[in-house]
User: Fold this.
Amino acid sequence: QVQLVESGGGLVQPGGSLRLSCAASGSIFSIVTMGWYRQAPGKQRELVATITNSGSTNYADSVKGRFTISRDNAKNTVSLQMNSLKTENTAVYYCKAELTSRSYWGQGTQVTVSS
Assistant:
């Protein structure tokens, strides 16, 4: 069992920055890959960024150069630094932990980009 708790969401102006954090607890040593996904109103959930145990990262084309995913194994957390935010980035952002047998999702945190 893995539990995930996201934090750091909120309201920010276009061009601003936010840093999301995801704290993992439980069977954390079974986690292979962690990632961030988002779901905007009326749209399907989509991948934002992932990071493996070895530190390899993958990003959606729309966020490359603006978002950065990172891990802190000592604190069992994964973060998403979001810079140069756009209104179209408004969505609920979810943390995901992938194990060999199944995946776990956090409850989500709202990010709203608006002037």
About this structure: The mean pLDDT is 96. The longest strand covers residues 18-26. Residues 35 and 50 are 4 Å apart (CA to CA).
